[in-house]
Amino acid sequence: MLFNYTIDGFENIQHQDYFSLQKIINKLMSLYRSYGYHQISTPTFETYDLYVHEDSIPSDDLFKLVNHQGKVLVLKPDATLPITRMAAMNHPNSDEIIKYSYQTNIYRNFSSPEMVKKEITQIGIEYFGNNSPECDGEVIALAILSLLEYGIKDVHIDLGHVGFINYLFDELALSPKAKETLFRYIENKNIGDIAAYLDQLKLSTDKKEIILKLPTLYGKPKTVLKDMKELCINEKMEWVVEQISEIYHHLEVMELSKYVIFDLGFTNQMNYYTDINFKGYISNCGEPVISGGRYNNLSEKFGIPRPACGFAIDLLKVIDYMEQENLLPQDDQSRNVIFYNCTDKAAAYQVAEKFRANGSIAEVFLIKGTWEDHVHSLRKNQLYKNAKLYLLSEGNLYTENNNQLLPLDSVDTESEVQ
Question: Class II Histidinyl-tRNA synthetase (HisRS)-like catalytic core domain spans which residues (predicted)?
């Protein structure tokens, strides 16, 4: 009957995973803080108006509700939009540098049957007011370091740039429908479909050959950069090559370039990205665990023109991987359980306080049956698997070892509780 109270796409986080989740969040927030990022939070509910004109998030994917005033609200489906709004409201000077970090849940009512999860736990950063390759390099570097921080070694970033193909298509004066179709074929690296579709378009042979080479712009950065230079037909495309070349150099300086692969053929679901976009992968994980990029036009929606770059990590995907690889931080804090008889209550709580004062966990229970029954019951409970058990009886303190009670000198024995 309990299954009647569950909702598909939402999951409970058990105590073991929750401990690991909090440790990971705290460590990553410390990492971001060391780079100057300030932790912030935005509301769980947002106005529907904030997203109604954002074609990057289909209306059917939003969880909607109406408040008592008749205003349509949504459960927050994206972190970047509300954070950009916050930056615009609190920092109206568009020249200001603003660096935010956050941890939040977002909600998507995905219509696709492949997308099961409806609640996604994210952590990430947003860097406003800096349009330089160094800013992009820092953001990508922190995405990589976020995974390396916990011993995940097989990490790679697919780095693309939405401008390279867009500037080519603009030069060719392609229709929106043609662009959309070609983008889809290029992302799937389906050269046969691209060739068949190009046969329907009135383009010169040399321009068709350039488009056919776009799916091959994947692999080692220096090789891809060389190929990109040969395909440039205007200054904007040449500018893109310069930009991502400088970003890659920044990552070389930070000794993180070995984690980067160039892929100029992929797009991103969040179509507010204007320049670089990237996805982060871990070995044996088919889906990306990190998504990010530059979104220079989004802040104008709130009246403040301001460039920005950022990323988000799907934390629960990372935890699933870390659990499989035995990389999760473990709860190794000492746990002590003190049982007492009625007349020893005050002494039992004094012993417990000594444990807590020394950084240990201490729980206190009144004996209601036999000592053996309590030990047997506790040892069956996974939560108390490694707990150390004590008995306080008639002023004497005992410790349990292999189902035997061993007396300690007294309730004041400092060596045991320190």
Answer: 10-317
